[in-house]
Specification:
Helix content is about 50%, strand content about 10%. With about 450 residues, the protein is an alpha+beta fold. The structure holds adenosine-5'-triphosphate and magnesium ion.
């Protein structure tokens, strides 16, 4: 009886799995905070005699008092068993299958417990790895303890049982959440070698959650960062996108640079950030993106990558002009050169090319403020994005602040005022005034998707 009361208040240790099991008062997560579809999924699994736990980012975010952006469920049912339980569900993936369970517009990702963690790492010889220790197959079902051990950070290996309102904590993730520490499960070097992308994930989580990377976790990164070169470029791109769209892109990019990880992801970053105008431009762009995401506004990845590449485009553009090329052809040449050069590095999908090029190509047209031209530019379908881009250029001092202000006024003005605003000289040379705007005065609200 007393034992029961104690375990209800303080939690208990599972003898079978070794996990610490925390009751509601110890973790503070309330069922109302959880998406109905996720609860229903766990419930259906339980009714069929399977385990069903909320896992990963959602549990971590709930513990931290943040609203999770999606909910993942872990279960001991096989993908085929899960699919049969839910009418609206489908199996995704070939190498490692997961099941998408849909209710309304919500999709819950259901994953069968996997066994590829620390335990197996001790018998490393038997697992297929490449010559740097990278895991080549990740495809064995296991129990919940195995599943916890194959996850990356302690704060990502927490399982929430909605029926009992308990959190199963295998590696002290709840304590690390409270201390704001990001700690790798198992031996950090081995785990980074198994999957070098975990280094990028470390930088992303540290930035997103404002956590401190535990010293032992951080130490091997400086040496292992070059292993990112062996990762498929598409996966690096996905990770870059997650970092940039995390709502903490500015901190994330600085975190990457501090850990020396940007060479593998944004190789241009050094050159950009070493140039004051480039630095101001990128900072303004990332801040704008972060602000939009904080306000739940759509942020366009193509726009964002367009800003990341712009300092390079600009540099090439100026160089070609200086070599005697006319402005417009010089810009188009520079755009193509930069896009070609980055393909081997970051693999920005070609589907973004169209928007990036349009936004770049419209920039010189903002200089033309006479006759019918400003009216025609206003009508352009990409005007909004291009104007937002112009504001970032103005903010960084690349073009005069006055140019951005002129276009802001021109959009708001009535017929007569517009006519009076038109300049006689339709294509003045860009002035390079280094006037900086105050933060918050930028185009934070105007970047169109
Ligand atoms: P986010 O809120 O950014 O989605 P998340 O923790 O849910 O964060 P996901 O990338 O969605 O991150 O992955 C879900 C879970 O899967 C993680 O919490 C982690 O436990 C596990 N995981 C994902 N990628 C890896 C990896 N490369 N190595 C080990 N575990 C991983
Ligand atoms: Mg997630």
């Amino acid at each position: 009886m007393i034992r029961r009361i104690i375990s209800k208040v303080f939690g208990r240790k599972s003898r079978a799995s070794g996990a610490q099991i925390l009751p509601q008062p110890r973790h503070g997560i309330r069922r109302e905070q959880i998406d109905d579809c996720a609860l229903k999924t766990c419930e259906t699994l339980a009714q069929a005699g399977f385990k069903g736990y909320l896992v990963g980012g959602a549990v971590r975010d709930l513990l931290l008092g943040k609203t999770p952006k999606d909910f993942d469920v872990a279960t001991d049912a096989t993908p085929e068993e899960v699919r049969r339980l839910f009418r609206r569900s489908r199996i995704i993936g070939r190498r490692f299958q997961i099941v998408h369970v849909m209710c309304g517009r919500v999709t819950i990702e259901v994953t069968t417990f996997r066994a590829n963690g620390q335990k197996e790492a001790e018998e490393e010889d038997e697992r297929p790895t490449d010559e740097h220790g990278r895991l080549l197959s990740d495809n064995v079902f296991g129990n919940m303890a195995d599943d916890a051990a194959r996850r990356d950070f302690t704060i990502n290996a927490l399982y929430y049982d909605p029926a009992r309102e308990e959190v199963h904590d295998y590696f002290g993730g709840v304590a690390d959440c409270k201390k704001h520490v990001l700690r790798m499960i198992g031996d950090p070097e081995t785990r980074f070698r198994e999957d070098p992308v975990r280094m990028l994930r470390a930088a992303r989580f540290a930035a997103k959650l404002d956590f401190h990377i535990d010293e032992a976790t951080r130490r091997p990164v400086a040496t292992l960062a070059p292993l990112l070169a062996n990762i498929p470029r598409a996966r690096i791109f996905d990770e870059a996108l997650k970092l940039l769209m995390s709502g903490h892109a500015l901190r994330g990019v600085h975190q990457l640079r501090a850990e020396g990880l940007h060479h593998g992801m944004l190789p241009l970053l050094d050159t950009i950030l070493d140039d004051p105008t480039g630095e101001r431009f990128i900072t303004a762009a990332l801040k704008t993106t972060d602000a939009r995401i904080a306000q739940d506004k759509p942020a366009s990845p193509a726009f964002l990558f367009g800003t990341l590449l712009w300092p390079q485009v600009l540099q090439r553009w100026r160089a070609l002009e200086a070599a005697g090329e006319k402005p417009q052809p010089a810009l188009f040449l520079a755009m193509d050169e930069v896009l070609d050069a980055q393909r081997g590095q970051l693999a920005i999908p070609r589907r973004y090319d169209g928007m990036m090029k349009e936004v770049w190509a419209l920039q010189p047209r903002f200089e033309q403020r006479g006759g019918q031209r400003p009216y025609r530019l206003l009508e352009h379908p990409r005007f909004r994005a291009a104007y937002d881009f112009l504001l970032l250029r103005a903010e960084s001092g690349e073009v005069a602040a006055e140019l951005g202000e002129w276009w802001t006024r021109f959009q708001e003005a009535g017929e007569d005022e517009r006519a009076a605003m038109l300049l006689a000289d339709s294509s003045p040379k860009p002035r390079r005034r280094r006037k900086r705007r105050k933060p918050g005065e930028s185009g934070a609200e105007t970047q169109s998707a």
